[in-house]
Specification:
Layout lengths: L1 H20 L8 H8 L5 E7 L4 H8 L5 H10 E7 L6 E3 L2 E3 L1 E4 L2 E4 H6 L8 E5 L5 E6 L4 H12 L8 H7 L2 H4 L8
Helix pairs in contact: 4-6
């Protein structure tokens, strides 16, 4: 009986830990995000990365695994992971963007467009519901900084509140959820 109870407890504990470990951002392809936005409009957050980028991998393992960020991004955005060296053409807003070979590597024209010509990795780009670039944010962002950024854009605070005032007054209770969507 004692052994059975221990087994039940252990399986419950391991079940909980593996369930929480499985929470991840539900990254979409560019096409999937555009398709989903036809039925329900949301802002889009694009993680522009490369396979060789160490800071991109660090964000994947830390910032993008944070429980709050995972839940918040999945709920409020269409999250897109976009390899800046993606080789296939993409049509966006009636224009075709292609991979351009340059030296041993190359780049995708859409990555250049989204970053306003300033490619660096990682870069997080926020688009509004009409696919207008709100802001490209270059460089590694830790959990705390990314939480500020993602809530600033999702709640439309950027329209009315200067960034410095927002970060000075930020708390999850006041700013983290768009109006009518508070947990």
């Amino acid at each position: 009986m004692y052994r059975i109870n221990i087994c039940i407890i252990l399986s419950f504990v391991f079940g909980l830990s593996s369930a929480s470990a499985q929470k991840k951002i539900k990254w979409l392809t560019w096409e999937e995000a555009m398709e989903k936005s036809e039925t329900e409009q949301k802002k889009v957050v694009v993680d522009i990365y490369t396979q060789w980028c160490g800071w991109c991998k660090k964000m994947d393992k830390s910032t993008f695994m944070d429980e709050f960020i995972v839940e918040y991004v999945n709920e409020n955005f269409y999250p897109v992971k976009f390899d800046a060296e993606f080789k296939e053409p993409i049509t966006f807003k009636g224009k075709e963007y292609k991979y351009i070979k340059k030296g041993r590597r190359g780049f995708h024209e859409l990555a250049v467009e989204l970053t306003k010509g300033k490619l660096s990795f990682p870069t997080i780009v926020f688009l509004d519901e009409e696919y207008q670039v709100l802001q490209p944010i270059p460089g590694f962002q830790d959990n705390e900084r990314f939480e500020l950024i993602v809530t600033y854009f999702s709640g439309d605070h950027f329209k009315f509140t200067p960034w410095r005032r927002y970060i000075r007054n930020y708390s999850r209770d006041n700013y983290a959820y768009p109006a009518g969507n508070k947990h």
